[in-house]
Specification:
heterodimer, A: 285 residues, alpha/beta, Rossmann fold, Alpha-Beta Plaits, 2 domains, two-stranded antiparallel sheet, 11 helices, elongated, B: 286 residues, 13 strands, 37% helix, 26% strand
Chain lengths: 285, 286
């Protein structure tokens, strides 16, 4: 099963929950953790995996052969991203704007456009104890996270419990991550910020038909708006992690909840059992 | 006019807390929320919307299934895995239009999609330009550009001394759109190992786009050791650490009340944010 951990708002504890869950399930079943927060991947800081391979992620970009190009400008006309322009007898390719769709090379009547791979990020993979680990890492300065997220997700092992650590927000990188998941855990905090972003994240999950449940982190440090919203919307609150400065300090040192307070492991295993039940109901309906 | 953007790399480090407090301090600022997919600044500023604009993103393909003979050319051509069962997944479609070109029956059309709205609002601290991307949509970078453009126009019209922008987390498309052309980026960091890792990447982004970064460490007393590491790193790369905000429960209370912390508290965090604003407002533009 594929379980994604998302939030809407950043810094609510997605990575803390994803890594703690992975550590709590380790030894009980095959577990894989894929870090899909490719702009700011952090799961490796908490799991400290041994990385044994690093592969580039590339996006195809056009290369124009000056000998055969007739400078007709059709490539520039069809490009939806303004990534290729013809000015007189020069063709300019703005590689950072190119999505690699291939429309320019398809339409070129002279057959002057070929494609080369441009590196936009890397995938690092390895193991943390019994946990199979991989993380995507977008190169600094690159805008498009999508191709790197798709590359990490291709490593998902159908025989394992796959935990996806999602990026914050509610737009394309989040959709790219949680699309196709059997369940999505939304980690939030009991503040107006947490609530506002949670409502948008729930809309995203519903839009792409992924059943979801909520984990409230820093419980007790805010108001009851999140609880009331979840009750009203019929979204199960599956775990409450209390507000505790010791947890925040341990996180600062790069320690997961499962490691610094091992009694939480049982709670994470129970959480997983409930998720599995809810995902089965979700796929049946 | 100075355009100050608050960024962080890692989410949840306190960008909006800091920026909303800044908003409450000078007389003549235009405010701007560049986090268009999970905006929060409006929750602290009580905006009253005075302009609403529609925002259209890239077009999305649509198959007219009555004509479609399922030849599969579009499926093979699409590089975004957006055509499944001869239906377009509008959330995966990146609007390149290649499928419409390869379809021998010319049975695929490209349609405009409304992906969000942007607003100009009145607040007691000055005008606020903000937006809301519809859930699960793309093109947040372009929406950020629309928001920033309007904020600049307003600043020119009103002779504002500052544009204060709350940025998105991450270092991808919306962060790049927020950053390019800003006078200064204040990076709100936190003393966790993740915070340090993400700070290094966001500093790299500032270098790439030639915007001078300044750093403040939020909740610095959660780990004095990691705060020192941040200061050492900033020292090594020639970035100034301009503020150290202590962990203070008043910050969370202010968020729950929906107000900037400098207005609800005279505590340690509030005092440090005021000092931080003085340092940034008076620091000459590079």
């Amino acid at each position: 099963m594929i379980l994604s951990v998302a939030s809407g708002k950043g810094g609510t504890g997605k990575t803390l929950v994803a890594t703690s869950l992975a550590l709590s399930l380790e030894g009980q079943m095959p577990v894989q953790l894929l870090d899909c927060d490719v702009e700011e991947p952090n799961a490796h800081i908490l799991l400290r995996p041994a990385i044994d391979s690093s592969e580039p992620v590339t996006v195809p970009v056009p290369v124009v052969d000056k000998e055969t190009c007739t400078y007709c400008g059709l490539c520039s006309e069809v490009c939806a991203y303004n990534a290729i322009a013809v000015a007189g007898r020069t063709v300019l390719v703005f590689r950072e704007l190119c999505h690699g769709c291939g429309a320019c090379s398809y339409v070129c009547p002279a057959g002057a456009i070929s494609e080369v791979g441009r590196e936009v990020g890397t995938i690092e993979s390895g193991h943390a104890g019994g946990i199979c680990f991989a993380a995507g890492r977008l190169n600094v300065g690159e805008a498009m996270a999508g191709p790197v997220i798709r590359a990490v997700k291709r490593l998902a092992d159908s025989k394992a419990t796959v935990i996806l650590d999602a990026p914050p927000g509610t737009s394309c990188p989040v959709v790219e991550t949680i699309r196709g998941s059997d369940f999505c855990l939304l980690v939030t905090e009991p503040t107006p910020f947490g609530l506002s972003d949670l409502t948008i994240a729930v809309e995203v999950a519903r839009e792409i038909n992924v059943p979801c449940g909520v984990v409230i982190n820093r419980d007790g440090a805010g108001h009851d708006g999140v609880e009331r919203y979840c009750a009203q919307e019929g979204i199960p609150v599956l775990m409450r992690i209390p507000f505790d400065r010791r947890i925040a300090e341990a996180y600062c040192r790069g320690e997961t909840l499962a490691a610094c307070m091992p009694s939480w492991q049982e709670a994470f295993r129970e959480l997983f059992d409930r998720v599995r039940g809810l995902a089965a109901v979700g796929s049946a309906s | 006019m100075k355009e100050i953007l608050v960024l962080s790399g890692k989410g949840g480090t306190g960008k909006t807390t800091v920026l909303a407090s800044f908003a409450a301090l000078p007389e003549n600022a235009v405010l701007c929320d560049c986090d268009v997919d999970a905006p929060n600044l409006h929750l602290l500023l009580e905006p009253v919307i005075r302009e609403t604009h529609e925002f259209y993103g890239l077009q999305v393909a649509h198959i007219d299934s009555e004509e479609c003979n399922e030849c599969g050319l579009c499926v093979d051509a699409c590089r975004f895995e957006a055509i499944r069962g001869f239906q377009i997944d509008p959330l995966a479609c990146e609007g390149c239009g290649l499928c419409a070109r390869v379809c021998p029956l010319e049975d695929i059309s490209m349609r405009d999609t409304l992906v969000g709205h942007w607003y100009v609002s009145n607040t007691k601290y000055g005008p606020l330009v903000h937006a809301r991307l519809r859930a699960a949509q793309e093109n947040s970078g372009k929406l950020v550009m629309a928001v920033r453009k309007r904020a600049r126009e307003l600043a020119q019209e009103t002779g504002a001394a500052f544009i204060l922008s709350d940025g998105p987390p991450g270092i991808g498309c919306p962060a790049i759109s927020s950053l390019s052309g800003a006078s200064e980026a204040l990076i709100v960091s936190e003393p966790s190992l993740s915070g340090i890792h993400d700070l290094e990447r966001v500093l790299g982004l500032c270098r790439n786009f030639s915007v001078r970064p300044l750093v403040c460490i939020n909740k610095y007393d959660l780990s004095d050791e990691n705060s020192r590491r941040i200061e050492d790193h900033c020292g090594d790369v020639g970035v100034e650490v301009v503020g150290r905000i202590p962990f203070d429960p008043d910050v969370n209370s202010a968020i729950v009340q929906g107000r900037p912390v400098v207005e609800t508290s005279d505590g340690a965090a509030s005092r440090e944010i005021r000092a931080l604003w003085e340092a940034i407002a008076t620091c000459p533009v590079p």
